[in-house]
Amino acid sequence: MMRDRVGQDCLHVPSGRFGLYLALRHWFKPGDRVLLAPTNCEIVLFMVLAAGLTPVLAPVSWRDGNIDVPAVDWAGVSGVLTTHLYGQPDRIAELRQTCSRHGVTIIDDAAHAMLTTIGGRPAGTFGAAGVYSLAKHGRAMSGAFLTCADPADLRALAEARDELLVPGRQLAAVVRPVIRETIYRTGLVRPIWHALKRLGLVKWTGHRLPSREDELRAALAAGDARARAGELLSALDYWLSIDQADWRMRHGSLVRRYQDSRFRVIDREKEPRLAGVRLLRDTPWAAEGVRHAEPQPLLRVPLVVEDRDAVVTRLEQRGIVPGFVYDPPLNDYLRLVPAGPNPEAARWWTSHVLPVDPLRARPIAGLLAELGVRPAVPPAL
């Protein structure tokens, strides 16, 4: 099914992060410097560290939170991870030309961008390897695909995958997303969310996982002495298991059949997503990258608003629970990672962005207007 979608062979993996880890281990050697956007999920940073690589934070554009290619210092960089943040396409033509000139390998991380195309070509197919996530698209909460053009690479990746997979709870991997989908479709988000908060099962702790940096440093230092990758992955479980404890679980037929069924959801929602994007791009809160780009069926539509955290709280009171808020930027998240150039753009973006599900575009736009939410003023203006 994925081969038909992307036009090249694919390897099924239990999660996008697992596919990303396999690609990083396969195409780079320990210590290589790999560029990534500080506006991305922290799990991407942790996967770079788990693979024994050195993360380098890229400058980003305030227009869309993606890598600002002309501002990158490519000295000593061996690889780059695309962002395609919320499904917004990276400047991929410019990125490929620049990487080719500098001998830099691209890993095309399309976890947010299964439905994104660039010049008619699917995102995820512009690098040595690409990664897609069913946990996000189709809301399967598990399942992903790793793709590359060379069958020999794919065979080697399959061998590495099979060595690192672990047993897990197959039934739970299906029941959890079924319950979540029921909540999503029946509008029970508000009472369930408030019940969980009253019971203390959900607490507001900021937008990122607490870094526990001293423990992370110790785990990484101990990992240098480990001969087997699986042992290091187990030692880093706290950081690598964010919101997906079974991220490297071996999937049985039950889980695979459920994941197959989610493709129908992805296809059924494509046009409604486009309609939601078109509606939101004309609102005063739309990010510049959405406002002036060809509409795509985005995973989330980035709006930029003043007092974003207060807006999130008020939306939660109305039963809307925004996700995919990556704040603070990775520049400020871990001291062991150098800040990188122009961190101000990343700080502005992460402190103002409100990612909106385009399938909920109309009610959320109405609420933002009702609440009198002000659009954030871009730093360039």
Quick structural overview:
The chain is of the alpha/beta class. It has 16 helices and 11 strands.
Question: Can you describe what's shown?
Answer:
The protein has 16 helices and eleven strands. The protein has 381 residues and is an alpha/beta fold. Among the domains are: 2-164, Type I PLP-dependent aspartate aminotransferase-like (Major domain) (Aspartate Aminotransferase, domain 2, 3-Layer(aba) Sandwich), CATH 3.40.640; 269-370, Alpha-Beta Complex (Aspartate Aminotransferase, domain 1). The protein has a seven-stranded mixed beta sheet, with helices on both faces. The chain has a two-stranded antiparallel ribbon with strand order 6-7. Helix 2 (16-27) packs parallel to helix 3 and helix 2 packs across helix 5. The radius of gyration is 20 Å and the shape is globular. It starts with a helix and ends in an 11-residue tail after the last helix. The model has no long low-confidence stretch (mean pLDDT 91).
